[in-house]
Amino acid sequence: MLSLEDVKVDLLSFLPAPSKTKRRLIESSQYVLAEEILAKEPIPRFANSSMDGFAVKAADTTGASQESPVILALLEEVAAGDCATQEVSTGTAAPIMTGAPLPKGADCVVKVEDCVVENNRVLLLRSASPTTFVRNIGSEIKAGQSVLQPGMALNPAALGVLASLGITTVSVYKKPVVGIFSTGDELVDPAEQPSGGQIRDSNRTSLIAAIVNAGFETIDLGSIKDTEACVLEAVEDAAKRCDAIVTSGGVSMGTHDHIKSALAVKGSLQWVQMAIKPGKPFVYGLYKEKPFFGLAGNPVSALIGSELLVIPALKHMSGYEQVDRPIVKAKAVSSFPRPSDSKVHYQRAKASYVDGRLEVFRLDAQQSHQLSALAHSNALVRLQPAEEIGAGAMVEVLLLDS
Questions:
Q1: Phi and psi, residue 80, nearest 5°
Q2: How many structural domains comprise the chain?
Q3: pLDDT attached to residue 282
Q4: Binning pLDDT at 50, 70 and 90, where does residue 185 land?
Q5: Can you give the pTM of this predicted structure?
Q6: Residues facing 327 on adjacent strands
Q7: Is 59 part of a structural domain of the chain?
Q8: What is the distance between the alpha carbons of residues 28 and 156, in angstroms, rounded to a whole number?
Q9: Confidence of residue 221 (pLDDT cuts 50, 70, 90)
Q10: Of the residues 317, 343, 363, the one at which a domain ends
Q11: Residue 84 is part of a domain; what is its CATH number?
Q12: What single string gives the DSSP state of each residue in 253-312?
């Protein structure tokens, strides 16, 4: 059996290189930036107040205190969006709102809490230094500065920076559209009533949700019967409509597992057994130049396989530099028993912070068909071969909600 790491290295090596596209800024959240952004203007564009208060000359505030206030004559108020028409000269002060341009002649702001207004004059109760509560031109971003670099996933703050620079379209890497279907004669739609040995198809719903939650568009291709002809027809359709194909079921060694045989002629696929539990069987490769990922049919195996392999691959195709969730350390508050084998186990767990420290406990129902435990977990505890963890030990954790 191969290690997960070796399979992932090979998997990422054949994926198509990310391609670029232009998108409207408002539609680019969590896309990966494909260009360097240079500021064409400074931020702020003008010196402005960072507080509600009074714009003054710092020299006028010398010695101001509660016991001995400095008294200045009031000028017109300057609100955000306005420009002052009066210059601040010695002995005067202009009421100013947060974000408003600093009037000519002023070099600092005394915040409103340190002032008292009476009879068209202001009493300053505290001294100030030049630039106090002033945002100077270019203090955040200078004209010509490199602001954002290629490879960055555009989060809300990054989009706000681009908007503040007047950028309305941006070059990003395309995200693949992912087609998803399940295989199995035993499967019926969730809306149907199973009969005999039939079961409702839960994998398709789970995998679509997992891939959508990771930020990708999906196409639901339905449930497919366990014949080579049906599988081949479904994959042909997916290859025409999608940029990547994900299936569940049909990848093990049974006589009705047809994924590998159906696609062998027109695809370049690898069928592997990985030293992990759950999710040991996996098929991957290219079908007519479209990446193909075949996951195990057991519900937990399919979802964990998508987490460990499929979603990282889709992120790689989308230009992400970091495609895996980080591994963090947590204190085990329960034991994590496991069989003595040579596999890396991913056990379902519940993690929470207690007094600022991450703690994790094991959930029951760890078999690969028991989806309910995964529904209640927010973490996977990674156990190395033959490693058993007792309560109080430190464990490796993938946080699924991060």
A1: -60, 130
A2: 4
A3: 92
A4: confident
A5: 0.88
A6: 398
A7: yes
A8: 9
A9: very high
A10: 317
A11: 2.170.190.11
A12: SSTT--HHHHHTTTEEEEEEEBSEES--EEEEEEETTEEEEEE-SSHHHHHHHIIIIIHH
β-pair type (92-96, 70-74): parallel
Element containing residue 244 per DSSP (H, E): strand 244-248
Q: Which two tokens stand for residue 303?
A: 């979802």
**Domain shared by 287 and 201, yes or no:** yes
| 322 in any annotated domain | no
pLDDT at site 261: 66
Strands 344-354 and 290-295: unpaired
Looking at residue 357, its amino acid is R
358 occurs within a structural domain: yes
- Spell out the residues 6+ positions from residue 271 whose beta carbon is closer than 8 angstroms to its own: 251, 260, 281, 282, 283
| pLDDT (0 to 100) of residue 226 | 79
Q: CA-to-CA distance for 94 and 76, rounded, in angstroms?
A: 6
Model pLDDT for residues 51-66, shown as the tens digit of each residue: 999 999 999 999 999 9
Give CA–CA dist 366/336, Å, rounded. Answer: 11
Query: Has residue 188 been placed in a domain?
Result: yes
Which domain, by its residues, includes 376?
327-399
Tokens of 169: 């379209």
- Burial class, 289, CB count within 10 angstroms (exposed 0-12 / middle 13-18 / buried 19+): exposed
Res 252: pLDDT: 59
pLDDT for residue 402: 65
Question: Does 296 lie in the same domain as 188?
Answer: yes
Which residues, at least 6 apart from 256, have a Cβ–Cβ distance to it below 8 Å?
Answer: 185, 226, 250
Same domain for 27 and 64, yes or no, is: no
| 55, 96 contact by CB (below 8 A) | yes
Among candidate residues 83, 109, 135, the one where a domain is terminated: 135
> CATH no. for residue 33?
3.90.105.10
Kindly report the CATH number assigned to the domain that includes residue 304: 3.40.980.10
**What is the pairing mode between strands 169-173 and 199-200?**
unpaired
